[in-house]
Amino acid sequence: MSKAAVPVTGATTIIAGATGKLGQLIVRRLAALKQPVRILTRRPDAARRLFGESVQIAVGDFGDRTSLDTAVRGAGRLLLLSPISARLVTDQISAADAALAAGVRRIVKISGSDWTIDPPGHSISGDAHAAVERHLNSLALDTVSLRPNAWMQVSLANAVRQAIATDTVAAANPDAGVGYIDARDIADVAVDQLLADTVTGRTLNLTGPDIVSARQLADLLSTTLKRRFAVVEKPPLAASGDADFEHRAIAQFAKLIAAGRAATTTDVVKSLLGRPPRSVAAFISEHAAAEAALSE
Q: Cα(57)–Cα(39) distance, rounded to whole angstroms?
């Protein structure tokens, strides 16, 4: 938690998006701190398999206001996380409004990357997250939107996996850097902001400690795995005209990254947690060790 923060204990935290990669990390951190957690899910059996009896489970759906009202009743905090979709704005605003009506005191939103949101008009996903952020900022309760840069466990993990399989690192612009952030650091900041006495501003731009390009990634892989990785240029990912919302959003991410928009770092993680964020080099070492263990 923030070095100067006083934890808000006892109040139930409701987690939307608990069964995804990041949601699981947040739930387990809260449970380890003996914080009461309630999960909003359409898949109660899957949630129970993941978390056992350590959490409460509320069966519900963003599109069902009655189930939302039941899920948030008596909760003090809401972690707002949902997949990229055409319903993101409607779903998240519905959850926020239900939380406000139920007397929830704080909402922590996992938002889009800062470079997808500002300036507007370049990312349908970023524009959707921005619309939710504006709504949250209009509510009479504590809200903070976390804007993680590219996630190591998603975009970087895919790049590393493909590189290991082909001995090449492919990128539309091999010199475009990315301030990757580890999902574990996102989870730590989310828990910090859920439990702290006060939130730290309206938006927090979360990045790793350094900017890494495809060429630098190839060098890191070569050093770690003791074999040469080449760099190849590939056309930027494009989505067909009839692609769904998620695939169009991902194609826009790729275009923005190739333009260097994700090449940024901040000191937010260190200032909040009192330690530096995890590095790409450390992530690659862990990933390589896991791959080696699987091949034995």
A: 5
In a domain, 140, yes or no: yes
Residue 59's domain comprises 12-211+257-295
Distance CA 210, CA 212 (A): 6
Under 8 Å between Cβ of 133 and 111 = yes
How would you class 5 by CB atoms within 10 Å of its CB: exposed for 0-12, middle for 13-18, buried for 19 or more? middle
What is the DSSP code string of 164-231?
A: HHHTEEEESSTT--B--B-HHHHHHHHHHHHHSSS---SEEEE--SS-B-HHHHHHHHHHHHTS--EE
Q: Is 243 inside any structural domain?
A: no
Number of domains in the chain: 1
Enter the pTM of the model. 0.93
Name the nearest CA neighbour of 146 among 94, 203, 93, 191.
203
Mind listing the pLDDT tens digit of every residue in the chain (296 residues)?
443 343 445 589 999 999 999 999 999 999 999 999 999 999 999 999 999 999 999 998 999 999 999 999 999 999 999 999 999 999 999 999 999 999 999 999 999 999 999 999 999 999 999 999 999 999 999 999 999 999 999 989 999 999 999 999 999 999 999 999 999 999 999 999 999 999 988 999 999 999 999 999 999 999 999 999 999 999 877 776 678 999 999 999 999 999 999 999 999 999 999 999 999 999 999 877 776 555 55
Q: Which domain CATH number covers 158?
A: 3.40.50.720
123 inside domain: yes
